[in-house]
Amino acid sequence: MRVTDVTVVLHERSTAGVASFGPRGGRQPLGVLRVTTDEGIEGNAFLSGPGPGPAAIAEQIVTVVKPWLTGADPLDIGRTGGG
To answer: How many other C-beta atoms can be found within 10 angstroms of the C-beta atom of residue 29?
Structure first.
C-alpha cells in the first residue's frame, strides 16, 4: 500500500456563543486534511486554530509534507520525512 495523494480542503464554520478557539458568534476557518492510498483507504484530520491558521498550515502540508508522503508506505509511522 502506498500514499497516492495528500489534500487539504479549507472552509469556514459558523460559531455560536463562546468558541474555545476563535471569534464569538462569527466564522471559524477550518481545514480537512485527507491522505489517500492506492487501495482506496483514506485518513482525515481537522486543521484549526489557534496558531497560524488552517490556510498557512495547509500551504506547508501541500508544499513540504505532500512530497515526502506521496509514494510512501502509510503504515511506516516511524519513518522520518524527506527521504
So the answer is: 15
Asked if omega into 23 is within 30° of 0 (cis), the reply is no
The answer to whether residue 78 sits within a structural domain is: no
Residue 74 C-alpha from the chain's centroid: 15
d(CA 36, CA 39): 8
- Please indicate, yes or no, if residue 61 is contained in any of the structural domains: yes
For residue range 42-57, what is the model confidence (pLDDT) as tens digits?
999 988 766 788 888 8
Domain with 12 in it: 3-16+25-69
pTM: 0.75
Task: Give domain status of residue 55, yes or no.
Answer: yes
Measured distance CA(21)–CA(66) in Å, rounded: 27
Count up the domains in the chain and report the number: 1
Q: Who has greater pLDDT, 60 or 18?
A: 60
